[in-house]
TrEMBL record:
The lineage of its organism: Bacteria, Pseudomonadati, Pseudomonadota, Gammaproteobacteria, Oceanospirillales. The keyword Hydrolase applies. It comes from Modicisalibacter xianhensis. Residues 36-105 form the HIT domain. One of its GO terms (molecular function) is hydrolase activity. It comes from the Bacteria. Keywords: Hydrolase. SUPFAM superfamilies: HIT-like. This is Diadenosine tetraphosphate (Ap4A) hydrolase. Pfam families: HIT. The keyword Hydrolase applies.
Length: 142
């Protein structure tokens, strides 16, 4: 039995988009950066090495497929994929599309300036774009 629950901080800071075979896909509520959070739907996991070998492979497949698709569909100069977990212990992967003209370039996005939450129209537009991308992945939504 899998008792997966999204950490309250991730739940508060993101918008749920979809579920892939392994991960819940969430959009970070900061319209300055196209920024997804992938959370393996496994209970009590804080580190990649705690996942099975198959889940580790699937995690990387989902992160890189989404990142590649974001870069192609939304246009970007660099793709950042990272795990940190210093503030949220639940394992999660940041997939962030960077542009040379974004607010933080070339510095990391973490802790840079004030978050700019999506307004309803911008959220709907970004959600539509990303869901179209998610739905075209070989390992699409579950």
């Amino acid at each position: 039995m899998n008792d997966f629950q999204l950490h309250p901080r991730l739940d508060a800071d993101t918008h749920h988009l979809s579920d892939l075979p392994l991960c819940r896909v969430c959009l970070m509520d900061d319209m300055r950066f196209p920024w997804l959070i992938l959370v393996p739907r496994r209970a009590d996991i804080s580190e990649v090495h705690e996942l099975s070998a198959d889940d580790q492979t699937q995690l990387w497949r989902e992160a890189t497929s989404l990142g590649h698709g974001m870069k192609d569909a939304l246009g970007g100069d660099k793709l950042n994929i990272a795990t940190l977990g210093n503030q949220v212990p639940q394992l999660h992967i940041h997939v962030i599309l960077r542009r040379r003209d974004d607010a933080a370039w070339p510095a990391p996005v973490w802790g840079f300036g004030e978050r700019q939450p999506y307004d309803a129209d911008s959220l709907a537009e970004m959600r539509d774009q990303l869901l179209m991308l998610v739905n075209t992945l070989p390992d699409g939504p579950k």
